[in-house]
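STRUCTURE REQUEST FORM
Protein name: Competence protein ComEA helix-hairpin-helix repeat protein
Source organism: Desulfurivibrio alkaliphilus
Requested output: structure tokens
Priority: standard
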Amino acid sequence: MLKKIVLTLCLFLFTVGSAFAALNINTADQEQLQSLPGIGPVTAAAIIEYRENNGEFASIEELVQVRGIGSRTLESLRDNITVED
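Status: completed
Returned output:
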């Protein structure tokens, strides 16, 4: 019985932990980008277009170069995004 409880708890913690993982903006598709707060379909497409034209983002700060992303949006995204795996 204890084994089942421990297994269930581990699975729960893994699921919860992965739900809060930062999204890699260098590999995210449009749907994943749209899941970020304040990012709609137009801005998600602009992020992908910027990435295709300029290569991978070197830092999350580079995101402000994308049309539709300003410093306020970047600050609201900072804890939810990454450029590394």
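Reviewer notes: The longest helix spans residues 2-19. The mean pLDDT is 88.
Form closed.
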